[in-house]
Each structure stands twice: as structure tokens, then as C-alpha cells.
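Methods — Computational structure assignment.
A single polypeptide chain was analysed. Its primary sequence is given first, followed by the predicted tertiary structure written as C-alpha cells.
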Amino acid sequence: MECSNNMTIRKYITVLNNETIDFRSIPVLEYDEFMEINLLFLKNANNHCVNYFGIQSDDKLILICCIANDSRARIKLTRTEVEFGQDKIYPSMTAKNLAFNMFEREICENFGVKYLDHPWLKPVRYPFDRFTKTSLISDYPFYHVDSEELHEVGVGPIHAGIIEPGHFRFICKGEQIIHLEIQLGYQHRGIESLFLQKNKLLQKVTLAESIAGDTTVGHASAFANIWESLCGYEPDEELQFVRTIALELERIAIHTGDLSAICGDIAYQLGNSVFGRLRTPIINFMQSWCGNRLAKGLIRPAVNNYPFTSELKASLLKILDDFEPDFNEMIKKLFHNPGCLLRLEKTGVVTYDQALEIGAVGMAAKASGLNRDIRTSHPFYQYKNIDHQPVIKHHGDVFSRTQIRREEILQSIKYIRSMLDNIPAHNQRNDILPQPQRNSFTISLVEGWRGEICHCAITNENGELIKYKIKDPSFHNWLALALSVRKNEISDFPICNKSFNLSYCGFDL
């Protein structure tokens, strides 16, 4: 709030995580004022941009910026209206704060908004409905240096493994990486548009499960939060219990698989084999719980189709009892192996200042000493009752990211054991959700295993979705990978890449 001439003028509105408000209550600012206040917000390290996107309204473009205050568990919302596709050019916020970089590039690509001083105004993902169809992925403007001493190395887009496509363009001096530019956008799923086109709730939640295949629970939970909030439905203790357990199991499974892959990339085959084996019982438990090893079908708005029974409790405790000692033994061997430590320590460093500057989130931020964990800063589900202490490291290297995985796995096991002491009774509900509220805005933040997930939704006067905006943590963190490899040998790229394990499909919406 600001005061002028004894009148209170609203500059922004503040909401809680998973809160729905009347979209019209978000103050509309002139662009210069909108830019000024959001840049001012980010001067405080406790604030960070969780989403910034546009929605077309007649001949105007409405821009909505969501700034989370991590010390007060509040989210500040502002909006402005600009002309797009015209000759009008706007100053960019990126020129003064790099954390807005990807958001403004996406707005430019989607709507044709032109920025006067954006330092790196390139396409983000070449969506099928991009504003300029003449912009082709084959013509991507890679950064180039004319030099007889430097050479370029291109990797991809066909991946060496059986995962998603992406192109990595290195500029090297001998074996040393000077610069890396990462080009994504090979998939044109149009998944945000599909949320508006599909009428059935089951279709929408199935889309949410498919945003990033390794984060089924994280994205499905964010959608469930959005839909329940829009419908004015408060999830009961059982729903919150199930989703919290599932999120922590997903964290254990993916972190353990990543430890296996990290060992594989440094040719430590014992760790590769053992961690790979340890992941299997965790995902097999999900299969026995809901019929799918990635937990598809488990998370549904306002309903739990798979009650957590006493038999499941006994099975999970047995799995954790078997998992923990083997995990501790293998992690001890890994962290006491001089050859492994030589590859992990001081490799792929991202400093605190770099992480803060680019707006890194989740594991990529915490490894560099930047505390970004929604479970603490904007708690949801049973995290409201858990004294969660984020795992923070300070060296920002591959070893720090590996240590975070170890400690978060053990932390998740501790949380699950505690929650299993008090399993809520199953409620055989037949709740029929009402229509979503009209002219509404909702935001949901969920801490997935990779970091901060953000979903936003806007409805029209009929309660129909007119905007569904998704942000996977990878949207922030791909630039962290590019920064991490500078001054490293090109042979260290695979281990740097795996230490982040960012999502291609979560980025290529």
C-alpha cells in the first residue's frame, strides 16, 4: 500500500498459497509503475518471482506478475495492460534484474511484445501458437565468437540416452568450456492450451500428470490444489496425508535414481547398481498402492480412490526398514571414495550470487546457499505441521547437489515414518464439486523433488478456464546448468547435467 493526497492507492494485492480471489481485485498499474514496483520487490532477497505471464483480452495484453515473499508466506500480485503486435516498444525488467529473463522472453515469443533493452531476447520453446510463425527452431540465433583459438561443439538434439530432445552448443578453448547455450523447444505439446480445450475434470488432471513424467505427484497436486480452491473446497486430513506421503515417496524415488545416474556418469558402477536397485522397491510400492509406479491415478481433486490401509503401512515400513541401512552403507562408500570425490567436488559450481540473480529454485538454489523451499516458506498439506528444515549447502558444486539428495532422502523417510503413526480414517466421500468460481484467479505453489512448481488459473464470467499457466522448476534452472559448466572440462558436462537433472518436457510445454 502507498498513500498519496490522504488517499490509499493500492499497488498490489496479497494472497496466500492456494487462495482464490476475484481477478478484478488485482490492481491495474501503468506499465512503468508495474515495472518499478516488481523490481523493487526483488531488491529484497526474501522475495522471488514465481510466475509472470500474459493473457490476451480483446486488443490488449494483460500481464500478471506473482512475487512470493518467502519470509511472510505471502504472494504479491500486480497486473498491467499493454499493446502487443504493434510498433510500441517497452523497457524490460530483465535489463535491471535477470530473474525476469525467461518470463519476458516467453511473453515476447507468445504475444509479440517488444522490449527495448532486453539483453538476450531469444525464443524460449517455439510453441505451435507462437506469435511469429517465421521464427523457426532451425534458425535459432546461437551466441557465436569469431576466434581462431575457440571452437564450437554441438550436442543433440537427439539425446545419447532415451530421454527428451535438447541441443547444447558449447564454445570451448581446448577442452575447457567458455560458454554453453542450451536450446530447447523441440516438443510442441500445447499442454497449457489443452487445459482450456478439455471439458472433463478427468482429462484435465490427466494432463497435469503428464506435464513432467518424473513429477507426476508434484504437478497433479498443484492442479488438484488449483481446482479445489476454485471450487471453494477444502481438502480434508486424509487427502492432505495421501498427497504428502506421495510427494515424499516421489522425492525418495527420483533422488535415489539420480544418485545411481551420478555414479554411472563417474564410472562408479557399484553405486550405479546399488542405488538403481534401491529405487525399485519405492516405485513398486506406488504400483501396489495405486496401480502405477509413477503414481498416475493417485491424485484426484476432492477424492481419494486409493485409501492408505494398515496393510500398505506395514508394507511401506518394511520397504523403508530394508532401504535405509543399504542406502546408508552405499552413500558412505560413495562419499569416502577418493576417486568419486575428485569428480564431484569443485565441479560445476554455481555461486550464491548467481543463483539469486537468475532466480534459481529448489535443489539448484539450496546447493548454493539460497533457501528456496515451498514446504517451509509457503507450507501446504501436512507440511504445515512438520517442522521442515530445508537442506542447505554452500559450495554450489556437484557434490553439494549430491549431498542434498542424500539428506533429503533420509529426511523424507523420517517424515513418512512420523506420518504413518497417525493415518487418517478413509472417508468414502461422493463429493460433487461445484462449478469453479467466476472471474477468479488462483495460484498454487508445490515443492516437488526438483523444486518449486507453480500453477496459475484464471476463469471468466461463466467460471470457465481462460488461462492455465504452468511453471516447472526447470524453467528457472536450465540457466544454472549453463553457468555451472564454465571453466570446466567438456568431459565434466554429463556429471554437471545429471547433478541438476532438469526436465525437458516440463520446460517444453
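Note: The first strand starts at residue 2 and ends at 4.
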